[in-house]
Amino acid sequence: MFSRGALAQPLNLLPLRFSRSCSSKGLPEEVRKKLTQGPGLGDFIEYGGKLKREKGDYQRLSLPPWLKRSIPQGENFSKLKSQLRTKKLSTVCEEARCPNIGECWGGKDGHPATATIMVLGDTCTRGCRFCSIKTSKAPPPPDPDEPYNTAQAIKDWGVGYIVITSVDRDDLLDGGSNHFAKTVIEIKKANPSILVECLCPDFAGDKTAVDTVIHSGLDVFAHNIETVEELTPFVRDHRAKYRQSLGVLKHAKDTLPNLITKSSIMLGLGETDEQIMQTMLDLKEAGVDCVTLGQYMQPTKRHLKVVEYVTVPSFERWAKVGDELGFKYTASGPLVRSSYRAGEFFITGIVNAQKKKLSQQT
């Protein structure tokens, strides 16, 4: 058991975004620099605004300068957006209003543009209070050509790692799991060497649906726990249950022990240190290999207000906790998201090392 006292230990206040457990051996120098860039402690000291709402305070917190991003633009951004529209593909980057969209879509530092593709349409059957994706009890049926179109678009990008995610589709008997599997199969058919991460919904806890996805040939299975157990009923849709999410992750790991599993936690919703710690312990017990922690940002005035803008030293503390708990990879920082391009470099190394180990055993 991880002791509460460990959280009170002196902190190294370097503005690291990623945990030291993410080995950078073999990575180009510019990549290592990229992974450690982010707002520094000085940014927080100089900012005179309010970082936390007290109990009974219903005013929205102003967005701190270190979380503001310029309007996406540029040739690569426009080209990728046009290609996605031509093939009728949706992305979680747009639908969830991700602050990193300009960086990922624009391509940078010699790396090609990439996006997190959202399959099964752009309309969710659930209504989580943190999410800006539109909802409906009866969304349009999935596009049968989407798996093929997705594979062709990704092939044209020339990337080595891609994340496929989706809305919740409680209206479908299989939750959309077969559509997920077909997409992975088409991607691997078009480019066998590409690594595919599936960031999946909980499929209402249906283990058969989970099996369909994990046996599709994917390389990383991800499902986001989103928040601590105590806040789950207030943050997520009533059909999205904390223990149900843990069960999905545990089943995937128990079924395929060598499969890399991943989850994500949003901070700034009013959770306590003890609750965050318990969530990380629960994820570790469920066999999760990789965990990311990022700042919750209110997408529109209709959604949950931010309770606190968490500082870089606090995120660095949770990165150290991830190290000590034994996660293979921990990403922790204000702009870290469950599918963030910079983190894919580390996970690629983990997956390739796992494959090499397995090949040597056979």
Walk me through the structure.
The protein is of the alpha/beta class and 362 residues long. The protein contains 13 helices and 8 strands. It has helices at 29-35, 41-46, 75-86, 92-95, 101-106, 146-157, 177-190, 207-214, 232-235, 242-255, 273-285, 312-325, 344-361; strands at residues 90-91, 117-119, 161-166, 195-199, 220-222, 260-267, 290-295, 329-332. Strand 2 (117-119), helix 6 (146-157) and strand 3 form a beta-alpha-beta unit. The longest helix has 18 residues, at 344-361. The chain is globular.
Sheet bearing the most strands, described? 8 strands, mixed
Mean pLDDT: 79
- What is the overall shape? globular
**Helix proportion range:** 25-40%
The first-to-last residue Cα distance is 35 Å
> Any low-confidence stretches, pLDDT <50, length ≥5?
1-37
**Secondary structure tally, helices:** 13
Give me the count of strands. Answer: 8
The secondary structure category is alpha/beta
Strand order of the largest sheet: 1-2-3-4-5-6-7-8
Strand content: 5-15%
Report Rg. 19 Å
Key terms:
362 residues, alpha/beta, 8-stranded mixed sheet, 13 helices, 36% helix, 10% strand, disordered N terminus
Q: What topology emerges from the helices and strands here?
A:
Elements lengths: L28 H7 L5 H6 L28 H12 L3 E2 H4 L5 H6 L10 E3 L26 H12 L3 E6 L10 H14 L4 E5 L7 H8 L5 E3 L9 H4 L6 H14 L4 E8 L5 H13 L4 E6 L16 H14 L3 E4 L11 H18 L1
Parallel strand pairs: 2-3, 3-4, 4-5, 5-6, 6-7, 7-8
Antiparallel strand pairs: 1-2
Helix pairs in contact: 6-7, 7-8, 8-10
